[in-house]
Amino acid sequence: MSQIAAAGLIGVSLGAQYALLALGFTLIFGILGVVNFAHGGFYVLGGYIAYGAVMALGVPYPVAVLIAVFATAALGWLFELLLVERVVEDHLATLMLTLGLYLVLSTGVLAAFGPESRQFAFPVTGTLRYGGLYMPLANLVVLAICLLAIGGVYLLMYRTDLGRALRALADDRHVAATQGLRPRLLFPLAFAIAAGLAGLTGALVTPILSLGPQVCDPVLATSFLIVILGGFGSIGGATVAAFLVGMVEAYSSVYLGGSLGALVLFVLVLVVRPAGLFGREARGA
User: Which of 1, 15, 56 is nearest to 230 (CA)?
Assistant: First the structure.
């Protein structure tokens, strides 16, 4: 019984991390109609910025995380404002731009830090023991911060004027523009939020898992899979799918010795619901 509960805790922790990643990815598609292939690059960049701030500047880890969030958010804002905004209606051009930025980020990290993984330890150590349950305290801290960040995204999107404006642009940008909303102001802001979420996840998770240039690809693949499962552009769908994938991965790793369960879930959901769990009619491609 304790093994089942422990696997469930791991699944919730993975799901929260995946949700934070996927929310940024799905925000960009839902609001701008852009598939952001640079998302994994922002994740690993957040990890390296936090690492550099701790190791080179000697700042406390929480401050390093904030630096990583603001730095990746600023880069996302500039990237959308200076490049993506010019071709935002051209889906092929935005694909090429985000893929190009991904290559620049991954190559830049590789050139600056080398191919080896860096030793970047989470500042909280120890294990929480309760009955037969064992959970690293670092994972619990990351879980709590991820849940707070996810809650903050929902509050922003559903309880603020900014969130309502962004959702209006996601529904129909041309009608929203006629109502006085300014896509040229809001699109870069949406991209900054998404990039900041990826940077936050990278700064939190890479000290626990691994910090190296090679982590970009699996992060991008996982985010893409979760967003497809949840339904492109659906915030609720991305969140539900992230926790489903996290739980399936945890239990399949414990009882099946691998993580193929997530792929089985992916296939089953798309067979039953090709548009994803909360999918809506696809935008033009």
Answer: 15
